[in-house]
Amino acid sequence: MYFVFVDYSGNPSKPRYSVPHEEIYVLSALIMHEEIIDSVEDAVGNILQDLNIDRNAEIHVSSIVHPKEHYSGLSIDVRRALLDKIYDYIASLDCTIISIVIYRRPVDQLSKRDYISRLQETAYELLIERLAKFFDKIDIRERVLIIIDESFYKRDTTIRTLVKKIITAGLYVPRINASRLFFRVPLFYDSRDIRALQLTDAISYAVFKKHTSPRSHVFDFTIYYNKILSKFDKCPNTNRIEGCGLKYWTFTE
Question: How far is CA 27 from CA 46, 66, 98, 207, in A?
Answer without folding.
Answer: 27, 21, 8, 9
